[in-house]
Amino acid sequence: MENYQNEPMDVQQQNLFNFGIEQQGLDYLKSSAKWEKFMAIVSLIWISLCILLLIFGGSAITALMMSRSQGLEGFEGNGSAALAGGVMTGVFIFYALLLSVLLIPNIYRLKFANNCIKAIANSDTELLTKSFKNLRVYSTFWGILTIIALSIYAFILVFGLIGFALS
Amino acid sequence: MENRDIEIDEKGKTNLLLAAKWAKIFGFSSLFTIGFILAASLFFIFSNNYIGKSYRNIFFDGSSYTFLIIVFFAIFLLLLFMFINLLLKFSKKVTFGLEHNDVHAVTEGFTALKIITGVFAIIGVITSIFSFF
User: Fold this and answer.
1) Residue A14 reports pLDDT greater than 50
2) Which run of H or E residues covers position B85?
3) Among A40, A116, A167, B55, which is least packed by CB within 10 angstroms?
4) Once rounded to an integer, what is the mean pLDDT over residues B31-43?
């Protein structure tokens, strides 16, 4: 407490808002950050692998489909095969983009974990604030994504019920 | 024992409060989604239309698979509810702790966060290993 007497008024006032964390709380936070780091790395690797699989595997499947569909009924012209190939490519690109979006929260998750571990190790309040900012972005992302998903469900439900009532 | 070496400053508090708020929104949205999917599934299973009959033929044909499917879904639901419960606990405790300067409540919130990350990291690893086969 004596240290605060030598600090300027604005620093003293700022310290009034500061919040000390229990050692046990810090241990739990550190443990959470370690697991989060591990999961973020695993998720990033998995998502990257899936994107690579979609890009390379997808193009191979599309090429195979285009070569197989030539000469089949309904795919007589080269144009039809190209169209089918184009649609497939579009689907693969869509899924690759969707997966790329999932990279974003995991990057923030990793940032939160790294900053949190460093902040606790060095007793760095500023770094801890930075880590909580990343945690905030990470949870905001999932919150917004869930709201969007719920809105889509509601949309489908409403249109399904309208369709059911009209049929 | 309070550690005065490291503190949450005003910005950190705001960020943590917002993270807790979004965690709460995510928790309740997930709860609503699960409830909705459960209700829809039960509706389809017991309905007397084509979808209901197909459902019953596939999942409830009286074989040993029926039991396995029920056990699998029960475990899945239990884990989901556990996850949501802990997420809501984290949000509630951290928000209360930061708003009322209650260090113990924040610690309880961090305990919930630790369980969420620990348990679900292990589940994630198991799922990742099994997805290879």
Assistant:
1) no
2) helix B64-99
3) A167
4) 82
